[in-house]
Amino acid sequence: MQNCFFAITLCVNPVTQQQPQHTWHILGAGAIGTLWTALLTRSGLSATLLVRPQRLPDQKQVCDLNIQEDGETTTLPVTLESTNYTTKISHLLVTTKAGDTLSAIESVKERLTEDACIVLLQNGLGSQQEVAESFTNHPVFAGSTTDGAWLAEFLSVNRAGNGVTWLGASNPLAEDREGLISDLLNLPGLDVRPTDNVLQKLQEKLAINSAINALTAIHGCPNGELLKPEFQPRVAALCAETEALLETEGFQSDSPLMDKVNHVLTVTSANINSALQDVRNNRPTELPWINGYLLKLAHRKGLKARHHEQLMAELKARGIE
């Protein structure tokens, strides 16, 4: 059980010894949300993790957060707030599952300041567009990350690998307003980079995940198993179909998708990806926002997507959502 105590805290930057100008509220207490909360706090920035009211009946607490990196565990005091707390939110980082994103933001909509910025870190595609269309009066940024992390328990995160996070504008109000997310772009412990085409980055990650995650969920195997000869023809078929579909949306790649997928399978051979983790923990997956997104794209364009249709049908037959 986490060590919690009631308090209202003032986070102080250890370098400048000045009160931060704003607080980052993180919505989504999974692995990535907990990791970013830890790194923001450790950097001396003001960060508050938002949780459901039933998890935090007292609305505001300070608790110990444990982050394990390279075999060493660091404990940090972090502020937790219930989503129905009343303080205003000027900077919102959303790390929920793709399917929960819009409803999660809606749950704190009344707390957003008039010019609050929203930063989205979700797998797949579709949820970003939903938010951008629903919150046209706010600058919305989206991100694609290859950082690895897994949650041992609530407020206890293990860092599994260092990747790259790309952040860019997701709606017109966010364009040319990179200063709003400068904290994140300069966050120690993460490689965060700006991009003027975040859609391309999201498409590239979706393309790779579409050939890996669902197959490992079906076969219950780590990523590297898909390099075996019996799986490679299906991986290749999914890659070819994905490339053809995304090209209709302007996606361009500097190398064949199959090469990128097999490289990821090689360097993450022992990894249990998020889809399989969700299956093993009886949670909904984000596959409807990955392979499911590609099926919707195919239907919208009047194209065939036989391999992705077969994959989604197989998932459904196994009770995997």
UniProtKB/TrEMBL annotation:
Enzyme class: oxidoreductase
Pfam families: ApbA, ApbA_C
Residue span(s) of domain Ketopantoate reductase C-terminal: 197-317
The entry's keywords: NADP, Oxidoreductase, Pantothenate biosynthesis
Keyword Ligase included in the entry's annotation: no
EC number: 1.1.1.169
Molecular function terms from GO: 2-dehydropantoate 2-reductase activity; NADP binding
GO biological process: pantothenate biosynthetic process
Pathway(s) of this molecule: Cofactor biosynthesis; (R)-pantothenate biosynthesis; (R)-pantoate from 3-methyl-2-oxobutanoate: step 2/2
Cellular component, GO, one term: cytoplasm
Gene3D superfamilies with a match to the protein in the record: N-(1-d-carboxylethyl)-l-norvaline Dehydrogenase, domain 2, NAD(P)-binding Rossmann-like Domain
Catalysis performed (reactions): (R)-pantoate + NADP(+) = 2-dehydropantoate + NADPH + H(+)
InterPro entries for the chain: 6-PGluconate_DH-like_C_sf (IPR008927), 6PGD_dom2 (IPR013328), ApbA (IPR003710), Ketopantoate_reductase (IPR050838), KPA_reductase (IPR013752), KPR_N (IPR013332), NAD(P)-bd_dom_sf (IPR036291)
Domain Ketopantoate reductase N-terminal per the UniProt entry, residue ranges: 24-170
Protein name listed in UniProt: 2-dehydropantoate 2-reductase
Source organism: Parendozoicomonas haliclonae
Gene from which the chain derives: panE
